[in-house]
Amino acid sequence: MTWLPNLLTLSRIVMLLPVMGLLAETDSADYRWAFALFLAAGLTDLVDGWAARRLNCVSNVGAFLDPLADKIMSNVLLVFLACRYPAWIPLWMVLLLLAREFAVQGFRSMAPCLGVMIRTERLSKLKTLFQLIAAGAVIAGLGWESLSTIAAPVALTSLILALASGYISMTTIFIRNADLWSRRPLDMESR
């Protein structure tokens, strides 16, 4: 059973493909199925970490895959929605979120070469949550026309909150770790 948490994490990435395929259609029933798959993928995010701790099988693979699956799910889905449904998701907001993602990830990838591990900020986790709420609101609004008047402002507000929490967390990470720019890299093993 030690493989279960990683399988759940991988399923989150795999479920994204049919979600986007269903969203490329024009029938509200397809959007409803997309929403159901989206919720199932979100549920795996809750269950995989719990299962890893419960089964005592926390692994390096899981520690790598879980945040990767979160980034793929939130960012790829928002890019897709912004390109397919620009009235719902402004592309410029998504591009600002992606720019922040690249900046933070680049900085984080430099840190281990300097002997430092940068923890994920709570605001960074909130950013991902707001991104997923925005995506979920759009999908729900597409699937149920009666929800569209509520879903559109929820999506926009969630994107604004994602940008705010994302850029505040990025600034915090950069300020707390400003000394990394002056450190000398560790000698690395070649393989």
Question: What report would you give on this structure?
Answer:
Helix content is 75%, strand content 0%. It has 191 residues and is mostly helical. Helix 1 runs antiparallel to helix 2 and helix 2 runs antiparallel to helix 5. The two termini are 32 Å apart. The relative contact order is 0.12.
What's the arrangement of secondary structure elements?
Blueprint: H1 4-23, H2 28-54, H3 60-84, H4 91-110, H5 122-143, H6 148-176
Helix pairs in contact: 1-2, 1-3, 2-5, 3-4, 3-5, 4-6, 5-6
* Morphology: globular
**Mean pLDDT level:** 90
CATH homologous superfamily designation? CDP-alcohol phosphotransferase transmembrane (TM) domain
Task: Specify the biggest β-sheet.
Answer: none
User: If you compute it from the alpha carbons, what radius of gyration comes out, rounded to the nearest whole angstrom?
Assistant: 18 Å
User: What is the helix tally?
Assistant: 6
**How many structurally independent domains?**
1
DSSP strand tally:
0
The CATH level-2 architecture is identified as Up-down Bundle
Q: Which structural class fits the helix and strand makeup?
A: mainly alpha
> Would you give the CATH topology?
Four Helix Bundle (Hemerythrin (Met), subunit A)
Which spans of ≥5 residues are poorly predicted at pLDDT below 50? none
What distance separates the N and C termini? Answer: 32 Å
Membrane topology: Multi-pass membrane protein
Protein name: CDP-diacylglycerol--glycerol-3-phosphate 3-phosphatidyltransferase
Subcellular location: Membrane
EC number: 2.7.8.5
